[in-house]
UniProtKB/TrEMBL annotation, chain A:
Pfam families: Oxidored_q2. Gene3D superfamilies: 1.10.287.3510. Keywords: Cell membrane, Membrane, NAD, Quinone, Translocase, Transmembrane, Transmembrane helix, Transport. It comes from Sphingobacterium allocomposti. The keyword Translocase applies. This is NADH-quinone oxidoreductase subunit K. The keyword NAD applies. One of its GO terms (molecular function) is NADH dehydrogenase (quinone) (non-electrogenic) activity. InterPro entries: NADH_UbQ_OxRdtase_chain4L/K (IPR001133), NUOK/Mnh_C1-like (IPR039428). NDH-1 shuttles electrons from NADH, via FMN and iron-sulfur (Fe-S) centers, to quinones in the respiratory chain. The immediate electron acceptor for the enzyme in this species is believed to be a menaquinone. Couples the redox reaction to proton translocation (for every two electrons transferred, four hydrogen ions are translocated across the cytoplasmic membrane), and thus conserves the redox energy in a proton gradient. NDH-1 shuttles electrons from NADH, via FMN and iron-sulfur (Fe-S) centers, to quinones in the respiratory chain. The immediate electron acceptor for the enzyme in this species is believed to be ubiquinone. Couples the redox reaction to proton translocation (for every two electrons transferred, four hydrogen ions are translocated across the cytoplasmic membrane), and thus conserves the redox energy in a proton gradient. It is a multi-pass membrane protein. It catalyses: a quinone + NADH + 5 H(+)(in) = a quinol + NAD(+) + 4 H(+)(out).
Automatic annotation (TrEMBL), chain B:
The gene is nuoN. It is a multi-pass membrane protein. Its EC number is 7.1.1.-. It holds the Pfam family Proton_antipo_M. The keyword Protease does not apply. It is found in: Cell membrane; Endomembrane system; Membrane. NDH-1 is composed of 14 different subunits. Subunits NuoA, H, J, K, L, M, N constitute the membrane sector of the complex. It comes from Sphingobacterium allocomposti. One of its GO terms (molecular function) is quinone binding. This is NADH-quinone oxidoreductase subunit N.
Length: 109, 466
């Protein structure tokens, strides 16, 4: 464990912040521009994993375990969310035979 | 804590009742469970509030009052469900169970004292709702609403979490008390922290549905079954606001010079977008969705001018709004059952066919519009009073203009009910089938409470020692 922490601290914290912000931004862009629902869900997972990585880095730098515990919360709840989300996508697919977000335009604002 | 545990057990118990085909027992058991939870909530009223379980949750009066409100509103909504769910599907135990689980999440959000509990509470609340919104499996609109709600909910959770992470990176804690210490004692607050505040603001604005993060609201509210819409626009919205207010009032007050301008812009955009779009709607349900956006704008006033009056005023406002919404959606269910449509035209001539229903709906609309002698007026008055106290004249003028605009579309329904005659297809229905007894009870209770709170607002304010 000490070894891992010192390995993590071998890279400057700023690099983690920039790297995770980039992954997060890629995820946000993916949600906004992709049309396939499955890929949108993958992008959302990318956002959450960027958060997990950053939390672990902060946690290691501060020597505070609570950040890593929070990562477990996020993983567990993200899994629950994905389970429900995939069920919803299957339900939609049965009715529309498509996972394209454009096929859902009955309700318009 | 007793209330949260009761509700968890109640949800599982309801599932078992469904398994053993005791459908008749579902509603009574759910109501008894809610009563027990309400009892636990009220019995903790006079105890000293200290953060429990390593500072995870705190049951202060703020949390308890809003928890009680959420439980009461859920009970009213469940009372409406008696025949409603049976028309949708065979498996009705799941509805009750999911609504109760969602309420559990709402209670957790009300009482959080650590970001972990905020996150867990919001997720419990929303994951149950994703299913409830899409519960009409073969209905296209319901499908679409569920998918949109799920994608937007998960997306906003991402922002919320990134905000939490950045704040953790700057301060090294998830605890609200420790965050406050950090904000007040640090010589320079790290730029990471400011970024975190902004991202959390975005995430929470998504959750409460204020412009410019509102675009999912009308679609989801429109596509979901009416009863679920009423649950979403009352309990879930109130709980999200409570979480929002608790974060800003406990931890972030010293930074108000930073976030007040941002929030002020959001409020002004929300009021105009909500009201202008509500004016253009021809469907009552969609109008209610946009009106819920503009009400979210008014409730944000309490956060913009944060102070000791914020909690009582947001409580009164939320109570008035929730009662009026329950009446409006109950009336919509009855009208839709008869005419099969939720357009304004289906309300034509309702005053002749069902005078009491029309009267209750009128009270609700007046309360939503903020006309004196209704609870909605007191809520708006307290909000405006806060803004006046902070000498924010621009906001006050803009809010007054919007309140005037809102009167127009709320009274549109009243005009339809009293001054227009049913035409065409509805003309044949001169008598409406009588409302079931549970609807009468809910409509009566909510309407009477609206009037009583409008005349004697002290009944609520005494809770906060005011």
């Amino acid at each position: 464990m000490e070894n891992i922490v010192s390995n993590i601290q071998g890279i400057p914290l700023n690099h983690y912040i920039i790297f995770c912000s980039l992954i997060f931004a890629i995820g946000v862009t993916g949600v906004l521009i992709r049309r396939n629902v499955i890929i949108i869900m993958m992008s959302i997972e990318l956002m959450l994993n960027a958060v997990n990585l950053l939390l672990a880095a902060f946690s290691a730098y501060r020597g505070d375990a609570s950040g890593q515990v929070f990562v477990f919360f996020i993983m567990a709840l993200a899994a629950a969310e994905v389970a429900v989300g995939l069920a919803i996508i299957i339900m939609v697919y049965r009715n529309t035979k498509s996972v394209d977000i454009e096929s859902l335009s009955k309700l318009r604002w | 804590m007793g209330a949260i545990i009761t509700l968890c057990i109640l949800g599982i118990l309801l599932l078992y009742l469904g398994l053993f085909k005791m459908n008749k027992a579902l509603l009574p058991v759910a109501l008894v469970g809610l009563l027990v939870a309400l009892g636990f909530t009220l019995s903790a009223w006079n105890t000293d509030a200290a953060p429990l379980y390593n500072g995870m949750v705190v049951f202060d009066r703020y949390a308890l009052s809003f928890s009680a409100l959420c439980i009461v509103v859920t009970a009213l909504i469940l009372l409406l469900s008696k025949e409603y769910f049976r028309n949708i599907s065979e498996h009705i135990a799941e509805y009750y169970c999911l609504i109760i689980f969602s309420l559990t999440g709402a209670l957790l959000v009300n009482a959080y004292h650590n970001f972990a509990m905020l996150f867990v509470g919001i997720e419990i609340m929303s994951v149950a709702l994703y299913i409830l919104v899409g519960i009409r499996k073969s209905d296209f609109a319901s499908n679409e609403a569920a998918l949109k709600y799920f994608l937007m909910g998960a997306f906003s959770t991402g922002f919320l979490l990134f905000g939490i992470t950045l704040m953790y990176g700057a301060s090294g804690t998830f605890d609200l008390g420790a965050l406050r210490n950090y904000v007040t004692s640090a010589e320079t607050v790290s730029p990471l922290f400011y970024g975190g505040v902004l991202l959390m603001l975005c995430g929470l604005c998504f959750k409460v549905g204020v412009a410019p993060f509102h675009f999912w609201t009308p679609d989801v509210y429109d596509g979901a079954p009416i009863l679920i819409t009423s649950f979403m626009s009352t309990v879930v919205k109130i709980a999200s606001f409570v979480g929002f207010l608790r974060l800003f009032s406990t931890a972030l007050v010293p930074l108000d010079a930073f976030w007040t301008p941002v929030l002020l812009t959001i409020v002004i955009i929300t009021l105009f977008v909500g009201n202008a779009s509500a004016l253009l709607q021809s469907s009552f349900k969609r109008m209610m969705a946009y009106s819920s956006i503009s009400h979210a704008g008014y409730m944000l006033f309490a956060i913009v001018v944060i102070g000791e009056n914020s909690v009582p005023s947001i409580f009164v406002y939320a109570t008035a709004y929730a009662l009026a919404s329950v009446i409006a959606f109950a009336a919509l269910i009855l009208v839709k059952r008869m005419s099969g449509s939720d357009q304004f035209e289906s309300f034509n001539g309702l005053a002749k066919r069902a005078p009491w229903l029309a009267f209750a709906l009128t009270i609700a609309m007046l309360s939503l519009a903020g006309i004196p002698l209704t609870a909605g007026f007191i809520g708006k008055f307290m909000m405006f009073n806060n803004v006046m106290g902070s000498y924010n004249v621009t906001l006050l003028v803009l809010a007054a203009i919007n309140a005037a605009v809102a009167v127009y579309y709320y009274l549109h329904v009243v005009v339809c009910m009293y001054f227009k005659n049913a035409e065409g297809a509805h003309a044949g229905h001169t008598t409406m089938m009588p409302a079931p007894i549970n609807y009468k009870v809910v409509l009566g209770v909510a309407a009477v409470l609206t009037i009583v709170l409008g005349v004697y607002p002290d009944l609520l304010l005494v809770l906060f020692g005011g």
